[in-house]
Write a sequence for this structure.
């Protein structure tokens, strides 16, 4: 991924892609003192840019550091990077981290860095192709409790168990894995939130120990606008037996219908179709 043409915004200016490098004694590499975002560009515009920039700043504060740029400055830097790349449909990856001035658990004097990269991400699937649904298995790891980790932060360290779970799922031929929370309730996939359709209503795990996704909130609003009731609650895994449709939501996943979780089978149907179409219309509208 590092050997390509293009520019990356790095601590205040665009630098050549191949030159966007850091030292091996970077605190973030050793102690996971980094936070990031994932954003999508549709028709040249970043969808919900300011919400993402705000979440980045907040994620850093939850890890005890302040990004040395305001939300407005991060928005502007992101727009500059997207414009320089010139892609109509793309993915944006801002990342902020503690630098290499101190080596040890404590790193109060470390410099805080910010980089923003953009790469091409066309929409691969037509809404029809998506409707087949993806196959998921159970993750071997649970989402930690909010008093065990800063679970509201999009912190790199929280992805250790996601990578482990995703690798195990893919090794078994599944596309992704569903993680339970610390209580044993349904939580989310390794990089996307979870929704169940039960008798015409949307049920989604209450986001009290994992990321309350920007797509999750968007889909809740779209559903309410359609008159679909939305219930945010603690959902035991057995409730999957009551669900007619299941889907994932996320910036990268958008709305991805699910056909299988463990022993449960689902047939993506009218609710998935409606929300996929509404989401597509919304992101293209800007
Ligand atoms: N949960 C996790 C673990 C994620 O990585 C993501 C993707 N950022 C989400 C949920 C969905 O969040 P969003 O809709 O803001 O992309």
């Amino acid at each position: 991924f590092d050997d390509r043409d293009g520019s990356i915004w790095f601590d205040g200016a665009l630098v050549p892609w191949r030159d966007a490098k850091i030292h091996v004694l970077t605190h973030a590499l050793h102690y996971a003192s980094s936070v990031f975002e994932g954003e999508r560009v549709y028709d040249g515009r970043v969808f919900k840019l300011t919400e993402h920039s705000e979440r980045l700043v907040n994620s850093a504060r939850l890890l005890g550091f302040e990004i040395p740029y305001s939300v407005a400055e991060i928005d502007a830097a992101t727009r500059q990077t997207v414009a320089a790349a010139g892609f109509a449909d793309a993915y944006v990856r801002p990342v902020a981290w503690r630098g290499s001035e101190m080596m040890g658990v404590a790193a109060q004097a470390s410099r805080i860095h910010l980089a923003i990269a953009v790469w091409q991400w066309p929409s691969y699937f037509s809404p029809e192709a998506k409707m087949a649904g993806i196959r998921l298995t159970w993750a071997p790891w649970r989402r930690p409790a909010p008093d065990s980790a800063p679970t509201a932060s999009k912190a790199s360290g929280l992805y250790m168990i996601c990578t482990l779970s995703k690798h195990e799922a893919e090794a078994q031929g599944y596309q992704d894995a569903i993680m339970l929370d610390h209580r044993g309730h349904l939580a989310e996939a390794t990089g996307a939130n979870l929704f169940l359709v039960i008798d015409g209503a949307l049920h989604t795990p209450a986001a009290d120990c994992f990321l309350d996704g920007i797509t999750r909130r968007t889909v809740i609003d779209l559903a309410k606008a359609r008159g679909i009731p939305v219930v945010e609650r603690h959902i035991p895994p057995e409730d999957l037996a009551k669900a007619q449709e299941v889907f994932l939501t996320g910036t990268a996943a958008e709305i991805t219908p699910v056909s299988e979780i463990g022993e449960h089978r689902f047939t993506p149907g009218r609710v998935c179709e409606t929300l996929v179409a509404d989401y597509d219309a919304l992101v293209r509208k800007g």
Observations:
- The chain has a mean pLDDT of 96.
- The first helix runs from residue 27 to 31.
- The chain has two domains: 7-120, 127-285.
